[in-house]
Write a structure and sequence with these properties.
207 residues; alpha/beta; six-stranded mixed β-sheet; five-stranded mixed β-sheet; 21% helix
């Protein structure tokens, strides 16, 4: 069985206790706005709580291992192939999407025996398009890197991720989207709204 959770500001990252999480072990991506990935394997289970440096994505086939993310506008993305028992979590902000972190995750899952048609992807609460305004230079750089046209003056992260996933062969029926905007909804932390240092957490685990 696979369990996943997208948190809100009722359980801040700063006060997160591993007792809140269902798995025995918890792995936290450090999150450096890149596309590096760590496969959590049996030899890594040397502590109950591990922060993995320099990565924005985690993948595992192991049971009882929580893959945990923190966000406040960026997109928490959770992946699962329940038939093969593979799960993954990725933190996707502008730079991560620009580096196509979803491609990195999906390709690694396929290497580990996942089947493309069985991979389900869910995008959690994040900033919506109308509140992600950027300069012309940043938008141009993003469009050139992703080859996905954006609304003038804005970055459309979820639209871009969906196109990237479609390009990999993941169909829209296997892509789920939580439509909550962290900027608009007072139940979520949003860096762009008030420069908060607080974060909500998300996780996926195979029980």
């Amino acid at each position: 069985m696979i369990k996943n959770y997208f948190g809100d500001n009722s359980h801040p990252w700063a006060t997160l206790k591993t007792s809140y999480l269902p798995g025995e072990y918890s792995f936290f991506a450090q999150q450096v706005h890149g596309s590096n990935l760590k496969v959590v394997e049996k030899d890594d289970l040397i502590a109950k709580k591990v922060v993995v440096p320099e990565v924005d994505a985690l993948v595992t086939k192991l049971k009882n291992v929580n893959l945990v993310l923190k966000t406040a506008d960026c997109i928490p993305i959770l992946f699962a192939d329940s038939k093969q028992g593979l799960i993954a979590a990725a933190h996707a902000g502008r730079q991560g999407v620009q580096a196509n972190i979803c491609q990195v995750v999906v390709r690694k899952m396929l290497e580990l025996s996942a089947q493309l048609e069985n991979i389900i992807v869910e995008m959690g609460p994040a900033i919506c398009d109308m509140h992600y305004q950027v300069s012309e230079d940043i938008q141009t750089e993003f469009e050139e890197a992703t080859a996905v046209q954006q609304l003038p003056g804005f970055i459309q992260l979820k639209k871009t991720i969906r196109i990237q996933l479609n390009t990999l062969g993941i169909t829209n029926k296997n892509i789920l989207n939580n439509n909550i905007c962290t900027f608009e909804n007072p139940n979520y932390f949003s860096y762009r709204f008030n420069r908060t240092k607080q974060r909500q957490f998300s996780y996926i685990v195979r029980i």
